[in-house]
Amino acid sequence: MVLIELPGGIPAWAVTRHDLLKELILNPLVSKDKQHWRLWSQVDSEPAWTWIKGWIGVRNMLSTYGEEHTRLRKLISPSFTARRSKALQPSIERIVAELLDAMEAVPQGQPVDLRAAYAYPLPMRVICELFGVPDHMWGDMARIMEEIMDTTATPEAAAATLGRIAVALPALVDYKRAHPGDDLTTELINARDQDDRLSDDELRDTLLLLIGAGHETTVNLIGNAVHALLTHPDQLRRVLSGEISWEAVVEETLRWAPSIATLPLRFAIQEIEVGGVRIGAGDAIVTTYMSAGHDPDQHGPDAARFDAAQERDEHLSFGVGVHRCIGAPLARQEALTALPALFARFPGLHLAVPADEIKQVPSFIAHGWSELPLLLR
């Protein structure tokens, strides 16, 4: 365990080992509810901390604890069925084909930004279809999800993002109340357990979580997998020959380059000891999926190296226990459709610039590439 500073100077504990991270996630004395943070009362007086409100100043499964988390998950989980994900497969394949057709129309020798042309629009179109987001709202949703991941934003920009959230997501709810359909927003509006149902704030913040997580994580999963293969051509050759499976590529990408590298915040309800370090009651903790994925004690001495051919032990990139991501099957499904289709269409795909010139997204939370310029042939 090490003490770090998040943007704005927020103090937090970070763990670098897989076993300790898993222990923390499963520890009933570690909460995700801001009420257990000893510094929460100071957030409004610290402008540089504005960005954290979009992560913990909300009420959804990401920011609740104990019975309240169980209640929200119970209301939401029935909408995330294997049947619904399977039913999306024809749409995923259609969108993949349309995006690949558009890329193929690019003149020979002209670079294509894979993020903008493929990795980004695929999950955005899928998640908007899943949640029944009308076309005229896509732009607002995309902007919000990009902005909330940007942990370099100024206090003014972070406040503006919170303002857009407060307008765009209630507008989606109002639209779906007036135009209900066979979609998850309609189901969440109607979700109930006897007399219990989501409040307006819970509905808004749940949509923020599910649309954001369902989009941003898949964008980076696809981009990170393509980048990993193109910078490891020996493994790409073995994948294309069938020696290494696409499932292995996806799981190794999730371990080695998780879409969410570090997630804020959890809080110690009382003083606890983790790995010989005492964490005080009310202290903040970040979940460090990237560090855990590179832990040599868990994944072997070459844990820092991408190697889809090597069998690894479990990774934590989708969480564990009651906080495991309920959208994980859909993210895998999209990646397992998008990746083989991309390389089948463009087997000569390669980076258009040196690998060290490609810039990552401006975030310590999300891990991905702000652009991924490629030559298709």
From TrEMBL:
CDD domains: CYP107-like. Keywords: Heme, Iron, Metal-binding, Monooxygenase, Oxidoreductase. It comes from the Bacteria. PROSITE patterns: CYTOCHROME_P450. The keyword Oxidoreductase applies. InterPro entries: Cyt_P450 (IPR001128), Cyt_P450_B (IPR002397), Cyt_P450_CS (IPR017972), Cyt_P450_sf (IPR036396). GO terms for molecular function: heme binding; iron ion binding; monooxygenase activity; oxidoreductase activity, acting on paired donors, with incorporation or reduction of molecular oxygen. PANTHER family: CYTOCHROME P450 YJIB-RELATED (PTHR46696:SF1), P450, PUTATIVE (EUROFUNG)-RELATED (PTHR46696). Belongs to the cytochrome P450 family. This is Cytochrome P450.
